[in-house]
Design goal:
By secondary structure, the protein is an alpha+beta fold. Helix content is 33%, strand content 15%. Helix 2 crosses helix 3. The longest helix has 22 residues. It is elongated.
Length: 158
């Protein structure tokens, strides 16, 4: 047997095996299929379940409300350009902080419903695209986290 013929035979065998794996049982009785039964232990999942978005967006927001409100309060001197509470992104325009001489803009991303420092991502940019000192970014993050904790305590939910 030549190498080319062996390769063709192997490809044909693989294709046939793949095609056979795609086939169903052929019997459409409910005894074999549990699709009508929605109990989790009987319901089959497929790769296509990854692409289904059955969650109601009104109930599946993954943003911590205390971090969200604290971000808006701490950075209230910046004009808000865009907010998306479903992705947790707040984008601001340029503004000058009280008592400061330099203007900034910020992008805040709240990525988790937990009141945690890992849930908050802050990006500051100076006018003209200039870099901001890491200490300044950390100070603003700390102010947001402190205010978020205060809001949570005021709300009475510990």
């Amino acid at each position: 047997m030549t190498t080319a013929r062996a390769a063709r035979l192997m490809i044909a065998t693989t294709l046939c095996a793949g095609l056979a794996a795609c086939g169903g049982a052929g019997d459409n009785s409910k005894a074999d299929h549990h699709e009508a039964d929605m109990r989790p232990e009987l319901r089959r999942s497929t790769i296509w379940d990854l692409f289904n978005n059955d969650e109601n967006p009104n109930y599946s927001v993954a943003v911590n409300k205390y971090l969200w409100n604290a971000s808006l309060e701490v950075l209230d001197f910046l004009p808000v350009q865009a907010v998306d509470p479903f992705t947790g992104v707040i984008t601001t325009g340029y503004g000058t902080p009280p008592g400061g001489g330099r203007s900034y803009r910020a992008t805040i991303k709240i990525s988790d419903p937990a009141l945690d420092a890992r849930s908050l991502k802050l990006s500051l940019q100076g006018a003209g695209g200039s870099a901001i000192a890491p200490g300044t970014v950390r100070a603003v993050e700390d102010a947001i986290l402190t205010r978020a904790r205060q809001l949570r305590l005021q709300d009475g939910r510990l």
